[in-house]
Amino acid sequence: MFLHRLIRRQFDKDRFPCILSPLTVTYACLYSTETAMGVSKKTQDQSGYDYAMAVMKMCDILHLRHRKMWLYPDLFFNLTQYAKKQVKLLDTIHSLTKKVIRNKKAAFDKGTRGSLATTSINTSEIEKPKSDAGKTSTVEGLSFGQSANLKDDLDVEENDVGEKKRLAFLDLLLESAENGALISDEEIKNQVDTIMFEGHDTTAAGSSFFLSMMGVHQHIQDKVIQELDDIFGDSDRPATFQDTLEMKYLERCLMETLRMYPPVPIIARSLKQDLKLASSDLVVPAGATITVATFKLHRLESIYPNPDVFDPDNFLPEKQANRHYYAFVPFSAGPRSCVGRKYAMLKLKIILSTILRNFRVHSDLKEEDFKLQADIILKREEGFQIRLEPRQRKAKAL
Which domain of life does the UniProt lineage start with (predicted)? Predict the structure, then answer.
């Protein structure tokens, strides 16, 4: 598998140390380039890696401007070395998008239509759980409105399961424009940049925190590995969408990771009208900026008993049903919530299951040793340092 080879290529030992950030950012970027732009990982050149590194360095500059008041005004910032670096980094970031759009449009002009590569196995042969025709099932633990019988984009339709060709995000936009939709090349570029920029760095942080927690909590990692062995056995076939629906325990561990270490620790909103607080007679005026500290919200003891303890059982269905609608908002909520949350969860499941099917994770640091850094996204100041040990897959139990 591509990710397996990527790790082994960088660390050619039986048991090796690994600093996750560059690795997970690189893979998440390559994954996003394939699904957002329709460019296969097999054909991507150095520009994919350069893009990932440019985004990381660009985030460092943005965070620097947040912390140093004298860099706020462009007048002063443009006199620094960071301004020159920013120009080069933005050129790298935008050039990849422009290059892919240019090539895609040329292919469209020749009548070629792109789609994501189909899997090399026949997914129709994989057994599906029996269900009523037309029934909508909910990805366990993800649908924020399920207790109120609401449906959102994280619900799974039965006809979503199986083998089919899907257009990449860029192909979909280009085809819409060709069919008469009022969308310019600049708007297409901005939409793709948004998916690329927001869709890989947050995923990299989420997967890095997840693997760190697996390294700390070996008994929990045992259960995740057992679940993956039950699903895949000793096969090295790629994961399918149906497989991800069966990753119940991995999903709970992932949700608990996002609870304790949300990639976006603070959410800001601008009020469009006056808002009276439910807790008092105070009125917050329209135009005010409201910040929601997701990191703090997810650690309220009134909502989560022992909030500083990593406990995947916090996301058992019965416990979720008894919590407030907005008690867990790693992707924000409401009309301004993350448009790619379903995509993010699927991507995380694929990445993490692929790693844990091939490696066991070890960490020399405990949770209390983590030094958190509130950058553009939540990170660890010391880096995500773990050790990966190749493991032998076990055949399915009969």
Answer: Eukaryota
338 is in an annotated binding site: yes
Token readout for 297 is 């919200």
Which residues lie closer than 8 Å to 334 by C-beta, 6 or more apart? Answer: none
Q: Mind listing the pLDDT tens digit for each residue in 181-209?
A: 777 778 777 777 777 666 667 788 889 99
Q: What are phi and psi of 6, to 5 degrees?
A: -60, -45
What would the CATH number be for the domain defined by 1-119+166-263+341-390?
Answer: 1.10.630.10
Of 138, 159, 355, nearest to 239 by C-alpha is 355
Residue 157: what are its φ and ψ, rounded to 5°? Answer: -80, 150
* pLDDT beneath 50: ranges in the chain: 2-4, 6-7, 11-12, 14-20, 43, 115-159, 161-164
Residue 381 CB-density burial (10 A; 0-12 exposed, 13-18 middle, 19+ buried): exposed
**Residue 202: what pLDDT?**
79
